[in-house]
Design brief:
alpha/beta; Rossmann fold; Domain 2, N(10)-formyltetrahydrofolate synthetase; Formyltetrahydrofolate synthetase, domain 3; 3 domains; about 35% helix
């Protein structure tokens, strides 16, 4: 077992030796004409210029149990697994989401893995990277500036300012911007109306960006976005305004996937980043398909637990293109399982087999949920130095009794080309090679209300669903406007199967409360807002930004 030494993730990343990105690209089979350099260690890949064949690589989806403040290490496991598969001789590529700046400066931290299983350059990926998020922010806010200008200039489309369903965005957790009034200051300052901000990763343009199959499809999807309604309550789209071309222009470079590398030199495409608790939580479809052209196995991940990101991957992303997973990895930790078993965070390093036994109910539900899609689950036990041999052995025996393949992964300390993920890689490779019977959870022909009930009952374990009066009215509007054939994207807390973040484990006897429904006609799904989940998070009492700095040589300090 490797001890988690005193080096931080940032210090480990800075000690790593990166190869020029041209070498990584050449080894991955990316021809020079398709490579656009961003310095020495980053590049964009233009899929239109690739000479690689059509997508054929198999997909491994990495998901997890319900997350806890103890941390599960999903991205760390994703990177370590890919490195171990490459070490075993497979041609592998990683496809990850880009980190959001708000959580990085807030509480969650970065999203490039950890320890010796990281994608590099860690600091640049976690900050501005190649500017993709800025492009999405600009496109979103350009749309709203054009909408408000249209209203100010005479409102030919008869847009009702009281019925806007689209907001401005910012890639920062800023609760003070959730509700604002714009257009104050007199007739020359615009038309006053109530507005608000979402975080960039909650923008429908981010969802469109990540679900588009090509530049042409991006333009078409942008045009289908509904941003509000007329006084006659008729939907108004970006195409009605005639600005889908301008928005596409702002995104034409950002839509190309970003190529980086792991500490071990495995190629990784890091591209797009919708949240999984308020959006669909997967990297861009273009990046996934590009990776499938270049590798035999593509290791990707979906945000938060399998009840959120993985379900949305199966029911939304995998409907659009041939990216259904051949295997699903469910990441778990002894620490997190004990927390789901009732142990407070400050006592998780103490051995507690009884709490572990109580907490596995959460893992069981996630594993069985994956099986409902006809895909083989493999449990990855992400090892921490506080884990005892007794706890790890019990958990492996429990998985065996459940009929689930499992392996302990020590990729934080023994990644970067080490052997910490070899056993996990072998089990995942076997699952990939085995036949599966992938299918979606529900048919699109079901009414939206029934799709929501299916997810709530089959995936969350709820007794039923309660719809608020506004949500019921929205259901009627969805039916009237012909949107009932779209899949559902549940916006729910990531910490619980319920819509109450304080209920750990695998609760029973609860109801999911849907307070509103938002049609995302460009992305092609209906968002169901449940509980108190917000599309603009806030910062914690002690943001991570308080520990960040830059030294005199320009090196980052305190980034994690």
């Amino acid at each position: 077992m490797s001890e988690r030494n005193s080096l931080s993730d940032l210090e480990i990343a800075r000690q790593a030796t990166m190869r020029p990105i041209e070498e990584i690209a050449a080894a991955a089979g990316i021809n020079a004409d398709a490579l656009e350099l961003f310095g020495r260690y980053k590049a964009k890949v233009d899929p239109a210029r690739l000479t690689a064949p059509a997508p054929a690589g198999k997909v491994v989806l990495v998901s997890a149990m319900s997350p806890t403040p103890a941390g599960e290490g999903k991205s760390t496991t994703t990177v370590g697994l890919a490195d171990s598969l490459a070490r075993a001789g497979h041609k592998v590529m990683i496809a990850l989401r880009e980190p959001s700046l708000g959580p990085i400066l807030g509480m969650k931290g970065g999203a490039t893995g950890g320890g010796y299983s990281q994608v590099l350059p860690m600091d640049e990926i976690n900050l501005h990277f190649t500017g993709d998020f800025h492009a999405v922010t600009s496109a979103n806010n350009a749309l709203m500036a054009l909408v408000d200008n249209h209203i100010y200039q005479g409102n030919e489309l008869n847009i009702d300012p009281r019925r806007m369903t689209f907001k401005r965005v910012l890639d920062m957790n800023d609760r003070s911007l959730r509700e604002v009034i714009i257009g104050l200051g007199g007739p020359t300052q615009g038309v006053p109306r109530q507005d608000g901000f979402d975080i960039t990763v909650a923008s429908e343009i981010m969802a469109v960006f990540c679900l588009a199959t090509s530049l042409a499809d991006l333009r078409e999807r942008l045009g289908r976005i509904t941003f509000g309604y007329t006084y006659a309550r008729v939907p108004v789209t970006v195409a009605d305004l005639g600005v889908q071309g301008a928005l596409t222009l702002l995104l034409k470079e950002a839509i190309k996937p970003n190529l980086v590398q792991t500490i071990a030199g495995t190629p990784a495409l890091v591209h797009g980043g919708p949240f999984a608790n308020i959006a669909h939580g997967c990297n861009s479809l273009i990046a996934t398909q590009t990776a499938r052209r270049l590798a035999d196995i593509v290791v990707t991940e979906a945000g938060f637990g399998a009840d959120l990101g993985a379900e949305k991957y199966m029911d939304i992303k995998a409907r659009i293109a041939d990216v259904a997973p051949s295997a699903v990895v469910v990441v778990a930790t002894v620490r997190a399982l004990k927390m789901h078993g009732g142990v407070p965070k400050d006592r998780l390093t103490q051995p507690d087999l009884e709490a572990l036994q109580a907490g596995v109910a959460n893992l069981r539900r996630h594993v069985h949920n994956v099986e409902k899609f006809g895909v083989t689950p493999v449990v990855a036990i992400n090892r921490f130095s506080s884990d005892t041999a007794e706890e790890l052995d019990w958990l492996l025996e429990w998985c065996a009794a459940e009929g689930v393949q499992a392996a302990v992964a020590d990729v934080w300390g023994r990644g970067g080309g080490g052997d910490g993920g070899d056993e996990l890689a072998a089990k995942v490779a076997a699952a990939v090679a085995a036949p599966n019977s992938f299918h979606h959870l529900y048919p699109l022909e079901l009414p939206v209300e029934e799709k929501i009930r299916t997810i709530a009952q089959e995936i969350y374990g709820a007794d039923g669903v309660d719809f608020s009066v506004p949500a019921l009215k929205r259901l009627a509007d969805i039916e009237k406007n012909g949107w009932s054939g779209l899949p559902v994207c549940m916006a729910k807390t990531q910490y619980s199967f319920t819509d109450d973040a304080s209920r750990f484990g695998a609760p029973k006897g609860f109801t999911i409360h849907v307070r509103d429904l938002i049609p995302k006609t460009g992305a092609g799904f209906i968002v169901a807002l449940t509980g108190a989940v917000m599309t603009m998070p806030g910062l914690p009492a002690a943001p991570a930004a308080m520990r960040m700095d830059v030294d005199d040589a320009g090196n980052p300090v305190g980034l994690s």
